[in-house]
UniProtKB/TrEMBL annotation:
Family: Belongs to the MGMT family.
Sequence ranges assigned to domain HTH araC/xylS-type in this UniProt record: 16-112
Keywords assigned by UniProt, alphabetized: DNA damage, DNA repair, Methyltransferase, Transcription, Transcription regulation, Transferase
Gene3D superfamilies: Homeodomain-like (1.10.10.60), Methylated DNA-protein cysteine methyltransferase domain (3.30.160.70), Winged helix-like DNA-binding domain superfamily/Winged helix DNA-binding domain (1.10.10.10)
Reactions the enzyme catalyzes: a 6-O-methyl-2'-deoxyguanosine in DNA + L-cysteinyl-[protein] = S-methyl-L-cysteinyl-[protein] + a 2'-deoxyguanosine in DNA; a 4-O-methyl-thymidine in DNA + L-cysteinyl-[protein] = a thymidine in DNA + S-methyl-L-cysteinyl-[protein]
Coiled coil start-end: none
Full protein name: methylated-DNA--[protein]-cysteine S-methyltransferase
UniProt KW Nucleotidyltransferase keyword: no
C-alpha cells in the first residue's frame, strides 16, 4: 500500500478551492462567507486551517493573493552570493530536516539513466498527491499530480531517464519522502541532470524556506549572468520539486513565472512556507 496521510490531502483540496474563490472575488473574503462556500461552519474552517498551516484563514488569504510574490521580493529576497556566508541553507532554519545530495556524473546523465533502477510510489503531501521516485542513493523525482493527473506526472518523470528501469516499490523511498514532508529527519537526493542544470539546482538549494530569489539572481550566482532564459528552463526542469525549491524562483517584476506542476501548487507552497515562517 502507498503511504497515506489523508488529512494533508484533504487540507490541500480545501485550500485549492480557497485559491479559486479568492481569485474570483479579487479581495479577501470574510471568514463566514469563505467557510460557507466550502460547506463548513466558520469554527470548523478556522480549526482546519490553523491545524494545517498555523495561522487563521484571514491571515492565510494574504499569502494567497497574487501580490504576495512582490511582497516576498521586497521583504524576503535572498542574495545567493551571500547566502552561505549568512549561514542560510536550502533546508532553512525553520525545521529539523537534514538534506544531503549527490549529483550523477555527466557521463551517467548522457546515458539516460542506463543501468539505474528507479523506485517509485504515490504519497499524500501538504500539496495534494505526490509521485516520488528514487534510486538507492536518494530521491531523484518528486511531482505533484493535482493539476496534471497521475499518468501525465509519471510519464513526465519517466521520460527524463529513458534508459532506467522503473520499479514500483514505495517502501524503498518512503522514509525519505516522510522526512521531507514532515520536515524532520534526513532526506537524500540523487540529482540527475546536465551539468548546467545541476548548477542551477544547487543554487536553488541555497534559498532558505520562506525566502525567494529571481531567475537573474540565480544566473548571476552561477557565473552566467546573461543566461537568464536558460536558467528559467533549468528551473522548470527540476525533477525534485519542493525539496529543490524551484517554487522560490520568481521574475524580477514579482510575477510568479511558470511552475511545471501548475501555478496553483506554486502559490500554495509559497503561502504555506510564508505562513509557517511568520506564524
Amino acid at each position: 500500500m502507498d503511504a497515506k496521510t489523508p488529512d494533508q490531502a484533504y487540507h490541500f483540496h480545501v485550500m485549492r478551492r480557497a485559491i479559486d474563490l479568492i481569485d474570483q472575488g479579487g479581495e479577501a473574503l470574510p471568514l463566514e462567507r469563505l467557510a460557507g462556500e466550502m460547506g463548513m461552519s466558520a469554527a470548523h474552517f478556522q480549526r482546519l486551517f490553523s491545524a494545517w498551516v498555523g495561522v487563521s484563514p484571514k491571515r492565510y488569504q494574504q499569502y494567497l493573493t497574487l501580490g504576495h510574490a512582490k511582497t516576498l521580493l521586497a521583504q524576503r529576497f535572498t542574495t545567493l552570493e551571500v547566502a552561505d556566508a549568512a549561514g542560510l541553507t536550502g533546508t532553512g532554519r525553520l525545521h529539523d530536516l537534514f538534506l544531503r545530495w549527490e549529483a550523477m556524473s555527466p557521463g551517467e546523465f548522457a546515458r539516460g539513466g542506463e543501468g539505474l533502477t528507479i523506485y517509485h510510489g504515490w504519497f499524500d503531501s501538504p500539496f495534494g498527491e505526490a509521485l516520488a521516485m528514487g534510486t538507492d542513493k536518494g530521491l531523484c523525482g518528486l511531482a505533484f499530480t493535482e493539476e496534471c493527473g497521475r499518468a501525465a506526472a509519471f510519464d513526465d518523470l519517466k521520460a527524463r531517464w529513458p534508459g532506467a528501469r522503473f520499479e514500483p516499490a514505495h517502501e524503498r523511498i518512503a522514509t525519505w519522502v516522510s522526512a521531507a514532508f514532515a520536515e524532520k529527519g534526513e532526506t537524500a537526493l540523487h540529482m540527475i541532470g546536465a551539468p548546467f542544470q545541476i548548477k542551477v539546482w544547487e543554487a536553488l538549494l541555497r534559498v532558505p524556506t520562506g525566502h525567494v530569489t529571481t531567475y537573474s539572481e540565480i544566473a548571476q550566482s552561477i557565473g552566467s549572468p546573461r543566461a537568464v532564459r536558460a536558467v528559467g528552463t533549468a528551473v522548470g526542469r527540476n525533477p525534485v520539486s519542493f525539496l529543490i525549491p524551484c517554487h522560490r524562483a520568481l521574475r524580477k517584476s514579482g510575477a510568479l513565472g511558470g511552475y511545471h506542476w501548475g501555478l496553483p501548487v506554486k502559490r500554495a507552497m509559497l503561502a504555506w512556507e510564508s505562513a509557517r515562517a511568520e506564524g
